[in-house]
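Hello forum,

I keep getting stuck at the same step: I have a sequence, I want structure tokens, and every attempt I make locally crashes halfway through. Rather than fight my setup again tonight, could one of you with a working pipeline run this one for me? It's a single chain of 183 residues.
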Amino acid sequence: MDVSLTLIVVMAVLFACGVYAMLERSLTRVLIGFLLLGNATNLLLLIVMGVPGIAPFYGDEGEMSDPLPQALTLTAIVITFAVSAFLLALIYRSWQLGQADTVEDDEADIALRGRTDADEDVLEDDANLEDEATTDFVGVQTAPITVLHMRDHSSIQDDAPFDAPDPRSDGARDRDNDGEDRS
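Reply #2:
Ran it on my machine without issues. Output:
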């Protein structure tokens, strides 16, 4: 079976419309665009699947279908469903809070849009300054972490176990009872 040109054109139109709809500020249009992209992906996987055949687990002779595109299509359907449910929850919450589903600019977006080329030149000049230390402990004689011992505070009990060198080893490798190396 040859791939139909109609399927390829429909897939391309779905991808184009989905991307265009996702670039809108309305969350409902973003959801519609995402659904279009999901359907276009499923159609792409259907086109890639190739010649239809018998089921791969069925033991007859003949051409078998490739199970990988089928598995990828099922995965794409599940992902599309999950992200669509998440977007629906976002749309519902946005409608509850603001009686609108559009995404508005915040102060940082407005400030970023208002920057000019001169502002960016000043930022580049600031980046070229000499490297300064980024820690608060430069020139300070004490360490940021102090380990307290029993001699430092009377309520501390210093009876925790610790690793000490084995006095029997005399620099030789430790051996267990069978004479084999433990390391």
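DSSP finds five helices and no strands in the chain. If your local run keeps crashing, start a new thread with the error log.
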